[in-house]
Amino acid sequence: MAFLFNRARQQPKQPSDIAKSIKELLLKLWGPQDKSKSEEELAKQISQMKLIVQGTPEIDCSPEQVHQLVHSIIQDDVLYELARSIRLLPFEARKDAQTIFSHVLRFKPPNASGDPSAVSYLVYQRPEIIVELCRGYSHPQSAMPCGTILRQAIQHDSIAAVILYDQSQDGQKAVQLRDVQVGIKQLGSGVFWQFFDWINKGSFEVSADAFTTFRELLTKHKQMVAQYLYVNFDLFFARYNNVLIQSDSYVTKRQSIKLLGELLLDRANYNVMTIYVDRGEHLKLCMNLLKDDRKMVQYEGFHVFKVFVANPNKSVAVQRILINNRERLLRFLPHFLEDRTDDDQFTDEKSFLVRQIELLPPEPVEPRSAQRSSDGSGVGVVAAS
Q: Is 60 helix (H, G, I), strand (E, B) or coil?
């Protein structure tokens, strides 16, 4: 008889029961009581949830069970508790939580159209989950699992928009996209702006992962980001130049210069590029990179410098700097990174820039009105050489 009762107690839980149990256990992690038993039980329950959404090599997952589980996870607000508590989980449970998020974000019932139900839920009902995932970078334990989840999530432009436009603080409701006015400048206090500190001040692992997500945010949805950068130009590039380009970390500095070059040369960012290369202080910053004692910083800096020189409508400020430094540049550039003998494109670009500097007038002249052509008004000549 005892054997029968034990079998009865060991019947698998329903997906809805697992979701409720996990939420209750996650809430206990924030309480004052001893958490060791809760952590152990929570790890088991999360592992069981992972098996439902992922299956095993021997047994495929049941679409019906997955559907029930996703419905229960959304209904019971489990994703929010999981996002904010992931750093408190044991190591294996953090990995399992990452797997669960990944499957839930992808799941669509058979014959369903549009975004997965979890994506719509995150954006329109619980954007706080997205914000909490970003804040995972504040803790080394949660940085990489949260980063992996975020990079999958921001494949959806609506989730990327939540990160860009949220300006909530801890304990506040996150942004509702229907209320966003894209033409109004940001205050610089929202979750997107915290990436600058996570990249610049985090440990190597946190910094590298945060930069990967930051880069994905800025390059995946080009038109949306181009408008965002245009509206928030001064705030964004003040932080980008001062925090990332001038970072003490070699890796952060090099990656940031490379990303800047990519952003400026992307046709979607043409309006942003024309403003950036109009400013003399940006050129000075870039010319200082050419003198860095690390060759890869010099190389990436060159790819930003060439945008200034190739611009056919240089501002008076930019012309003045180039004219005042003409002789030094003409002596410097032919010998700049001359050991890159196998890089024909780089050699051609240097020759092109030398010629452009030679052709500068003796004194600055007012530029022609910039013509916003689709080919980048001459800047692409350098990029495509």
A: coil
